[in-house]
Amino acid sequence: MKNSNHPIRKAIIPAAGFGTRLFPATKAVKKELLPIIDGNGRVKPTILAIVEEAISAGIEEVAIIVQPGDCQIFESFFKTPLNAIHYHKLSPENQAYSQYLQDLGEKITLLIQEVQEGYGHAVFCAKDWVNDEPFLLFLGDHVYLSDTDVSCASQLVEIYNRVGKSTVALTVTPGEKIYHCGCVTGNWQNNDEILSLTQVCEKPDLNYARQHLKVEGLTGDRFLTIFGIYALTPTIFDFLEANIRNNLREKGEFQLTTCLEQVRQAEGMYGYQIKGKCFDTGMPDAYYQTFIDFRNG
């Protein structure tokens, strides 16, 4: 196991997709830059909410994976100060927030995914930057809202620090929706708080899930699915690299979930049901609902 006892300091956010399901809006605006409104009424691009979620968990450095032509867009938002004319038009509160964005930008590195060949491929683009440390991984089109004073990402890091192995955030999903999701099963540990995983399965059909993915305590057609945040050891890169080298694709792309299952088999993996909600901004109706629910908390 590689440096599993190293504290998690880094986070990866893949943001190199086109956003096909949100076309034609994504012809004008990157999916990750579409606006949401937070609980304080502040309008912000989705990517900022994800970066802030990472920082809330003590993350010191964030890598955003982008397409070659998109560096300038993200660079402009996170690293380029407003010109003086626009800055002085802001309220004092927003002037302070503008400086906060500049400070945040110092923690952000932009990494290039030359060719978009799947989520797993995007993650692999950060291998050298991660440099053999554990890391947090986020979806680039999901935002998160904790039900407690502890952020969702912080909850996951706390569990990772306890178990010292790759840990995925989980949520309960009804059976009719799991074909969209990574799904897991396993055995409860520590007074039913932590799940020792025995299988990670990408987008199963309901019949398969009923036979193989039931989890004790969940009645009816309810299953544990991946919430959209992962705390991973760098072992994941070994399996991603092997898949890419051997051109092992699923639906034409290099997937992450297959490699998660390989990591689970190699060194074990845990799951934790997050006390919070995950909001999808990657599909029209889901984005519409996120716009409402994220604001309302």
Automatic annotation (TrEMBL):
Signal peptide: none annotated. The keyword Cell membrane does not apply. Residues 10-291 form the Nucleotidyl transferase domain. InterPro entries: GalU_uridylyltTrfase_bac/arc (IPR005771), NTP_transferase_dom (IPR005835), Nucleotide-diphossugar_trans (IPR029044). The keyword Nucleotidyltransferase applies. This is UTP--glucose-1-phosphate uridylyltransferase. It catalyses: alpha-D-glucose 1-phosphate + UTP + H(+) = UDP-alpha-D-glucose + diphosphate. GO terms for molecular function: nucleotidyltransferase activity. Belongs to the UDPGP type 2 family. Keywords: Nucleotidyltransferase, Transferase. Its EC number is 2.7.7.9. SUPFAM superfamilies: Nucleotide-diphospho-sugar transferases.
